[in-house]
Each structure stands twice: as structure tokens, then as C-alpha cells.
Specification:
The protein has one helix at about 35-40, and strands at about 5-15, 20-30, 50-55, 65-75. With about 80 residues, the chain is mainly beta. The N and C termini lie far apart (about 45 Å).
Length: about 80
């Protein structure tokens, strides 16, 4: 079974208690099976939106790993003309 381990970078502005909050982090991710070929075709730095679930990296681990079950290229809002 194909396996892809990667590191995803997230940046966004979230609204919390009526205030804008900048959120930035990296998370380790894993994809298995047919989705691997599609993910390998995505250029490094391309914005994507992923669907999946968080699970411990190993049994009894406190470190979380994002298991990617689906993804699509993200539509980024650009400047209005």
C-alpha cells in the first residue's frame, strides 16, 4: 500500500471572542492508498484543503498525526479589481 508522510503548514486569521487571531502552525500528516499518487503530483507550496482525522502518531503517543483522507486545491481569495 502506498504511504506518504508529509509536513503541512497552516496560516489563517480566525475570529475568537470578537477579535481577529492569526493562526500559524505545522502538523505532520500521513496519507495511505490511492490518494498518495494524487498528493505526490501537487507542487511544493501549493495551497490545498484537506479532510481527514487526528490520531496518535503511535499507540499511547501524545503526539498527533493528521491522517489525510481527501484533499482539493484551495481557492485563495485574491485582491478585488
Amino acid at each position: 500500500m502506498p504511504v506518504l508522510e508529509c509536513l503541512l503548514e497552516h496560516r489563517s486569521t480566525q475570529l475568537e471572542a470578537g477579535m481577529a487571531r492569526e493562526v500559524e502552525f505545522e502538523i505532520k500528516a500521513l496519507a495511505l492508498g490511492g490518494i498518495v499518487k494524487d498528493l505526490e503530483a501537487v507542487d511544493l507550496g501549493t495551497a490545498i484543503s484537506v479532510t481527514g482525522f487526528l490520531a496518535p502518531a503511535r499507540k499511547a503517543s501524545k503526539t498527533l498525526l493528521l491522517h489525510i483522507t481527501a484533499f482539493e486545491r484551495a481557492l485563495l481569495a485574491g485582491p478585488s479589481s
